[in-house]
Amino acid sequence: MTANGPVAPGWETVVGLEVHCELLTATKLFCSCPNAFGSEPNTNVCPVCLGLPGSLPVLNARAVEFAMRIGTALGSSIEPSVFHRKNYFYPDMPKDYQISQYDAPINVGGHIELADGSLVGIVRAHIEEDTGKTTHVGGGGRIHDADYSLVDYNRAGVPLVEIVSAPDIRGAEQARGYVNELRAILIATGTSDGRMEEGSLRVDANISVRRRGDAEYGTRCEVKNLNSLRSLGRAIEYEAARQIALLEAGGRVVQETRHWNEEEGRTSSLRSKEEAFDYRYFTEPDLVPLAPAAAQIAAVAAELGPLPAARRHRLAEIVARDGGPAPVEQLATVVVLGLDDLVFGAAACGADPRLALARAANEAANRVDAARGLDPASFAELVKLEAAGSLTATQSKSVLVAMLDGGGEPAAIATRLGFEALDATELEAAIDATIAAHPAEWERYLAGDAKVAQFLLGDVMRVTKGRANGKAVAASFAARRS
Amino acid sequence: MSAWAYPAGAVETARAVRAGELRAREVVAAALGRIGRFEGALHCFLTVTADAALTAADAVDAVVAAGGDPGPLAGVPIALKDNLCTRGIPTTAGSHILENWVPPYDATVVKAVAAAGAVAVGKTNLDEFAMGSSTENSAYGPTRNPWDPTRVPGGSSGGSAAAVAAGLVPLALGSDTGGSVRQPASLCGVVGVKPTYGLVSRYGLIAFASSLDQIGPFAATVADAAALLDVIAGHDPADSTSLDVALEPVSRQLGRGVAGLRVGLISDFLVDASPSCVAAVREAAAVLAGAGATVEEVAVPALMLGLSAYYLVAPAEASSNLARYDGVRYGLRVDGPDVTQMNGRSRSAGFGPEVKRRIMLGTYVLSAGYYDAYYGQAQRVRTLVARGFAEAYERFDVLIGPTSPTVAFEIGAKTQDPLAMYLSDLYTIPTNLAGHPAVSVPFALSEGLPVGVQVLAPALGEGPMFRAAAVVEAGADAAARGPIEPHAAGAVR
Amino acid sequence: MPGLSEAFSRDDVVYVARLARLDLDRGEVDLYAAQLASIIDHVAAVTGLDTSDVPATAHPLELVNVLRPDIPGPTLPRDEVLARAPLAESGRFRVPPILGEAP
Predict the structure, then answer these.
(1) Which residues in chain B are closer than 8 Å to A47, comparing Cβ atoms?
(2) So where are chain C's domains?
């Protein structure tokens, strides 16, 4: 299955991830302020998202639709739901309570298939509002040594969907794979752009360990402040090791929230003198329940295009028709970049799917925008030329780059670059020239020296300026020897 | 009796202004003059907006002069409870924590009354954050009852009730969460209405208990109260709990009488009420019967569970609604070495004892381990109260009972015992729990102090409710209602 | 279910006061504990009722699905936003040091 990094033998790492996604709605969750990134502080605010006395929330229809799209994509059951208040004091909270969903969330259950084929269960996905942003002044900008803090409420009230996975993840690599797949799903559904570094995708990890074979879960710690996939992976490895060392030394893991420190490469306890949070959830009296109609649920499902896992499967199917396995990494790359239609299109024009996939995953991946606009028929032409031996792999890649950078048809570009395929006569003449120039080496080849064949091949390539097809040259050598 | 220098009543005043017979400026100036004379003794207002009011009055007159129609309340002075947000005008909720807070926006009802041509003359005193039954919990001192200045006007909308009772303004708005419009109306001898929950937008009402709060009119007559309700009722997209229904204006339904109306007299409400309050209700029942209604006593025991459920639900919602007053974005800040201490110092300095009690009570009933026994249970009892009403309304169209167990009590009489104060709301609370409408109509005097009778109706039953209220009013003691010249101390009894 | 005689002890007052960010001195804790215990005592009359087959009323209304379209509307001008701020700096609300991370 998956390689999940070094873990002490006999132990298993168990991870569940809570991912918050900012939705790509035009306005905030409960008011009409623009949902925009990067505006001047406190310019996208109104009485509602500032929590001014007397203000009231009104739910954004599009946020609900997006939440339903996400639930559908995750295979969740879309249920009637209500909103709750989660009460706690913090300066980035305009009302000192967050409107969220507690025991009746909109999306229940589901699962994701990762690119490596493994499955991770989804417990729930619910709607909630985002908080404002605090910046800490003094003390290096970190919260613990700051002199004071400044609060910007532009982000307060932005719609979030929180997705909670089952504790099915078994290590750092699978965790990264999960986040990547989730991001691809969010992008495919058009609901979020999933950018961890920009904060539109935030990940908290619940990490525990247990001895292999144990049915029960160990005590978990929640780790926060994971700002990149790299941090996520490093934090999982660190925390698993920390817990294992603790348990092996006879200690107990304390259930707590820990903070990942990227510079120091470790987690630390956030145990301040605060009481365990008693959120006093109760049904939000300023909102009414959500009861999505069956027709609306069906409409959302119908409008959803194929999701990444389904697209990988379809692509794998046509590639594997030649009997060999489909390369997992290439499939993932091509689907994530949205180039699978290009490959399908080329295959439909008669190009070899495996070769088309390889070219799309490598060269085209470096020029994605151009690749997405590439005519599948032209691409198919190129793949066919390479498959037929009229172009070498090297030449094919060069032609593709030229097509992506400047447009044009493969045959014409090949000619322009001097890549015309050698016909048999020219090829034999080139080989004759090489043999004539290196008789001693040719004798050694005829005597059975396989290594010198490379040298001779290289010379043919030099003489023909790379236009010879390596396989054809090798075939000709072999024919002359026999 | 007209206590003003201009026509008695809002409806008549508006008619005269629209007809060009009277200038809005004269009306508003007269109101301001009266406020100037009596405010010192009564303390109904926290802010008087004289200049803005005269400017608004002039605008109304200009519209009339140009041949236009300024609206159904043209030129009528109106007072607004100081928990209604008014743009550019200080709004304190009767608390130190919002001392000098000026909202950047208007409540929906504030815009509605202005659009109808009414002229706001000021913000009235209230129990802090609408928590109380006497207006003694105001951080800015109590309001005095115009019938006897040693007595409370009731609460929490005491300032608005007293302002109408003393003839300072013909109309006022208050808010009613457990009786805070009806009870002061009864104690001040004016009409006070709590509409069906959701009929009037709560956007811009500083929240106390969200599932119970409603804004309601005060007036000297049922007709004036109906006119104001018709202006403020209506769907508001800014309030998710706002009803989107087409209700026939109650002003039009007032005169249709009560022939055939089935009236139930809530017998449970007569048990602890004072004899004069009980007598008033029985008298009102007779008036209704005389006008063609059928009146019968009915026991609705579930209603008596209301007080307990209310004092679990309302503080719980309040504890959450008042969390935002943390010294960060607006309001009072008392500094501290860190945010948590700043929050604690600001809130302790800014909130009065009753507010603190209710916040703590509410926090407690919601807290882990106690939620189901207290808050959860109270929400289920709420269903029992609603069912009790539903059963009664299968046999009756409206119900009647006392509004308050007593007449106005002396200032200071109940401040030492919170529970004694809470009992003032015994007969008004069940209506809020069920989301129903109710109105208090001034009916009789007891040793010189007003006694109101309450008419209750099912959700959206404002029509029959007002019809019954109009009949009760017609049979009431005219001396029992305002507006009056405020009495000097000792003048009554 | 908490017993009535245990309801609203001093410890309870200290706990909820901290949760609700209310600073109370010792005298206030005692006073409020006495008052709140007596109030809870009275309202606890309902806690003994059998409501096993009674659903809760979170709301007097039976509305569902109240939504608004995703169309931008007016925002407040920043100077109005900050005009009533107890303390502002660089267009933001300034607060004393925050000791812990958000939950």
Answers:
(1) 103-105
(2) 4-48
Contact C95 A291 (CB under 8 A): no
In this model, does residue B7 exceed pLDDT 70? no
> What mean pLDDT, rounded, does chain A reach?
91
Q: Chain C: residue nearest B432 by CA?
A: C60
Secondary structure, 3-state, chain A: CCCCCCCCCCEEEEEEEEEEEECCCCECCCCCCECCCCCCCCCCCCCCCCCCCCCCCCEEHHHHHHHHHHHHHCCCEECCECCEEEECCCCCCCCCEEEECCCCCCEECCEEECCCCCEEEEEEEEEEECCCEEEEECHHHCHHHCCEEEEECCCCCCEEEEEEECCCECCHHHHHHHHHHHHHHHHHHCCCCCCCCCCCEEEEEEEEEEECCCCCCCCCEEEEEECCHHHHHHHHHHHHHHHHHHHHCCCCCCCCEEEEECCCCEEEECCCCCCCCCCCCEECCCCCCECCCHHHHHHHHHHCCCCHHHHHHHHHHHHHHHCCCCCHHHHHHHHHCCCHHHHHHHHHCCCCHHHHHHHHHCCHHHHHHHHHCCCHHHHHHHHHHHHHCCCCHHHHHHHHHHHHHHCCCHHHHHHHCCCCCCCHHHHHHHHHHHHHHCHHHHHHHHCCCCHHHHHHHHHHHHHCCCCCCHHHHHHHHHHHHC
- For domain C4-48, give its CATH number from 3.30.70, 1.10.20, 2.120.10, 1.10.3470: 1.10.20
Contacts with A, B 79-108, CB within 8 Å: 83-85, 91, 93, 98, 101, 103-105, 107
Q: Which of C59, C92, C101 sits opposite A151 (nearest CB)?
A: C92
More confident site: A145 or B220 = B220
Closest by Cβ to B339, choosing from C2, C57, C96: C96
Q: Are residues B17 and B76 in the same domain?
A: yes
Higher-confidence residue of C47 and C93: namely: C93
- Quick one: average pLDDT of A113-142? 93
Catalytic residue set of B: 81, 156, 180
Asked whether residue B492 is assigned to any structural domain, the reply reads no
Closest C-chain CA to B212: C60
Write the pLDDT tens digit of every residue in B173-214: 999 999 999 999 999 999 999 999 999 999 999 999 999 999
Q: What is the pLDDT of residues B117-158, one digit of tens each?
A: 999 999 999 999 999 999 999 999 999 999 999 999 999 999
Is the Cβ–Cβ distance between B204 and B108 less than 8 Å? yes
> Residue A310: which residues within 8 A CB-CB, separation 6 or more?
none
A371-401, pLDDT tens digit by residue?
A: 888 999 999 999 998 888 788 888 888 899 9
Which chain C residues are within 8 Å of A289, Cβ to Cβ?
Answer: 64-65
The domain boundary residue, chosen from A252, A267, A302: A302
Last residue of a domain, one of A416, A449, A467: A416
- Does C88 lie at the interface with B, CB-CB under 8 angstroms? no
pLDDT digits 0-9 by tens, B389-405: 999 999 999 999 999 99
Q: Mind listing the pLDDT tens digit for each residue in B469-490? A: 999 999 999 999 989 999 887 6
The larger pLDDT score, comparing residue B6 to residue B262, is at B262
Residue B335, domain extent: 306-383
Give the minimum alpha-carbon distance from C87 to chain A in angstroms, rounded to a whole number: 10
Q: Is residue B227 part of a domain?
A: yes
| pTM (two decimals) | 0.91
Predicted local distance difference test score (pLDDT) of residue A249: 94
The residue segments making up the domain with residue A155 are 11-302
Query: CB contact, 8 Å: A278 with chain B?
Result: yes
- Residues on chain C touching B363 (C-beta within 8 angstroms): 16, 19-20
Question: Which residues of chain C does A280 touch, with a Cβ-Cβ cutoff of 8 Å?
Answer: 19
